[in-house]
Queue: 4 jobs
Job 1
Amino acid sequence: MSIKVLYFAWVRERVGKAEEQIEPPADVETVGQLMAWLARKGEHYAYAFANPKVIRAAIDRSHARAEARIEGANEIAFFPPMTGG
């Protein structure tokens, strides 16, 4: 399963890229598992996903929780919490 992953704000800065196409292993089934898998990809990813509780995610442009399943997703975005004004 190939998924386009987008990184925004400080997540992008820490990972070092705005987007990439990935193929997570079959046992990565949720957003939380995807973040954990990405954190193991290298130093920059580990830094970006060091505290996954503060990272927000969206699956195909809809907000998603850590337990949301990623099966069938075309695009997953990771970003820090946003504040409004």
Job 2
Amino acid sequence: MSDSANARQHMIDGQLRPNEVNNEVIIAAIDSVCREKFVPKNLSGVAYHDNNIPVAAGRSLMEPMVFARLLDAANVQASDLVLDIGCATGYSSAVLGRLAEAVVALEEDTELVAMATDVLAVESCDNVAVVKGPLGEGLAAQGPYDLIFINGMIDQIPPILTDQIAEGGRLICVLNDNAIGKATYVTCENGIVGKRVLFDATIPEFESFRKKEKFIF
């Protein structure tokens, strides 16, 4: 077993399974993606550590355990069209691509778009398309989506995103609740949006979703 494969197995056995991620389909998808390829070369040695890994200014790859638990809750189906918001270097999109029919990887940082496009091509993620655009607006032109997966903590879910959830679809995110991250499962049934809190989670916040300060005169 190679060093990276060994590190990946330790991540699965030491971080994912003890935190109730035991769905073998998800485990296999995560095991099939070389996480070290999606981080800066100087950080490849810590790619499988239980931390958020910085990949650009203000941007990180989500901690493996939190990512896996969100993925587990998302209940990705083989027929799903997924919008992966804030894909960064493309790691989350690569894993989602192992589970879904197609993934639209949305990223607003030009350098990250280029990196994600290159790495996903090298890793033969042929069902993933990287698109540059504002994270908070989603990509309505390619929707609606069976699953919208948001890779950073957000202050609020803009209606423009819930409008892009397909009937019977869902959105997975981490909401900022007074500085405490709450992993949240959002559904859309008959035009009614519902929310359910899943667990506490600490991940970097997306500036694109930050609430604007209101000035009182």
Job 3
Amino acid sequence: MGRLWTFGQKLSAGFASMVVLVLIAAAGAIYALDHVAERNDRVIAVEARNLILAGELRVAAEWKASALRGYLLLRDDDNLGTFRTAREQVQDVLTRIRAQPLDADSARLLDDVERTESAHQGACEPLIVERQATGTAESTGRAFQERALPKMKELRQQIETFAKHQERQLEQGSRDAAAAAARAKTALIALVLLAVLVAVGLALALSRALGHQIGSAVQHVQSSSSELQTAANQQASGTREQSSAMSEITTTISELLATSRQIAESAQRVARIAEDTAKAARAGELTVGKSGEQIGAIKRQVDLIVAHMLDLGRKSQQIGGILEIVNELAEQTNILAINATIEAAGAGEAGRRFAVVADEIRKLADRVGGSTKEIRGLIEEIRAAVNTTVMTTEAGTKAVDTGTRQFLEVAVVFKQIVSSVGTTTDAAREIELSTKQQATAIEQVNIAIANVAQATRETEASAGQTLQTASQLTGLSKDLLRLVQPQADA
């Protein structure tokens, strides 16, 4: 079927194939960007969020334990209210974690945390009731050591296990996102290389087909010229119709000239359109390059998020160390309180000893207050790290938006290419129409020359002129054939 196609149809097919290749490359780039953005959103919205909530759960549980110790020691309503509030916060954080997408291991660890927290709450409530019923600090302290403290240690261990698991999930998500970006880059490069190879193949095939078609046409012209030369050799006489035949030849040549000018103008239009198409393609290439830079910016933003998350983990470890100091101070305070109670049972001189013990209790309370301030400072640092993470996430979102706008620009450029190709097709059709008109005019020239040959057979001068013209046409056709098919010289 390709042999039956005209010059314009083959040229249009070549341009259409190039546009299809460009659109395929653009579609592959958009798919790769969407895939990488999806992986990054998963890391930011799920793994990082779960790690933050695990930190909040750790802080709320320690706050609850500290408030319980304070109430059992001092028996004041402030610490009891703080204990209730901390309990509500623990439940709220557990609810928010449960609302997040969790894998099977995370869900299992969270179930263990909820069961242990409920068991710890069940151990704390009787202690509170006992302390409210005028129980002594010594008895409630022993009960706390036997019933509540083991549950609290178990709860700390399970929360730490859950947090470490979320850190591993975050690291794995980051590695998966980086691997997805690398795979997308490799696939895009392969797709572009494939498109270039296919385009080169199409160009070679189209040039060979057009050269063969033009060569065949030139051979036909050469054959016709040979026949014309033979007819000119047979001219002998007759001049009565020479004048009218020459007029027809002049008119036909004028038509040929006009048609040739139209072909030249159409060819110039094709050249200009091709240049515009090339410029539009280069603009599309630059836009794709900018989009690649935006993808790199997204990756850097994700790296910043991971760094801030790691910093948040280190701060949480420092909080754990300070809380150990608070636990130690609480135990010492409990021992001093017991001693003070024993001394208070005395009389007289024992009152001064009780004052010394009370002073020691006050000093220990000051140390507990200082540790509490340090805990608050670290919590503020954690909040600052969280805020920085949120800002970095917003920057990553803006980078994704910028990349999307760049790809929209690529789509606009490709639309311009399609429009230019349509205009090129119209110009090719005009070339085709002009070629048909030229063929008709050539047929008229042949008829007119035949009439001249019949009318001037008896005129040797006219016959010689016609013979010379036919020879020149044959030589020109051979030269044209050598230009199109260099192997014809052989």
Job 4
Amino acid sequence: MVLKIGLTGGIASGKSTVSNIFKQLGTTIIDADEIAHNLVEPDQPLFKTIVETFGDEIIQTNGYLNRAKLRQLIFVEPELRQQLETILHPAIKQTMQIQADKLRNCYCILSIPLLLETQQMDMVDRILVVDCSLKLQHERLQQRDNMSIIEIERILQVQANQDARLAIANEVIYNNSNFNDLQKQVLFLHKQYQKQIFA
């Protein structure tokens, strides 16, 4: 049976970079964000449900969801965020499980940014947390997404804090240094997961 590793971490902690390194090593990545993206394409049933819930103003002129506008809405109104999660998360979870069940690899990565927040720990065998300092998270969000301090704080407030994530981790990758250091940490874990040998 395939070993399922739940990859999680705070926003801008480096989860995508870590996923990409694992992918380059030949690891199958099942990505919750990617699945969510596909589930809300205009021809998908969930697209209609989201538009009915949040209104036509979240549709762009090209007919696709205006993700930036939707993100602003859900981070200002917690009730709206819960509504969106209720629509999306069961379908994402089901899709991830179906994809994982088809695999014959020794292990795979389930990338679930909100693993702890949505209490989906039962989906995985081990939890890998990508961690970095709060200062670096702020810097990366400002550079990457051009977010204001207020927007950043809103997002960080609805995510689990660093201590809570580290408390559920079986393994931790620290992304406070450089890319080479990150690669070394991933390669070490890749070998462990392949052999299924854990400290």
